[in-house]
Every structure is written in C-alpha cells, then in structure tokens.
Design a protein that fits this description.
The protein is mostly beta strands. It has no helices and two strands.
Length: 48
C-alpha cells in the first residue's frame, strides 16, 4: 500500500544581535524591509 505524504514548510523567525552569524547558516541575504514599528525601515537577514 502506498501512502501520500504531504510535507508542509516550516518557517521560523528569530532575532537578536549576532544571530545572523550562526555557524551553518547558508544562502544569507540581507534585505531592507518596511515595518509598522518605531524604526520604519530596517535590515533583515534571511538564510537557510
């Protein structure tokens, strides 16, 4: 019997000074993003 398995993507958001420099992060990309908070524009690092 064959089962169909669906894998849902998981997204995690973490923040803090220095977290962008964790060993093992790959494909790092910095982007400028707009926010509704005090700093209306900030940088965000995304990685795999």
């Amino acid at each position: 019997m064959t089962e169909n398995v669906t894998i849902e993507p998981v997204i995690g958001l973490i923040g803090g000074s220095g977290l962008y420099d964790i060993d093992g992060l790959e494909e790092k990309e910095w982007r400028r993003v707009e926010t509704p908070w005090v700093n209306r524009q900030t940088s965000c690092c995304s990685a795999v």
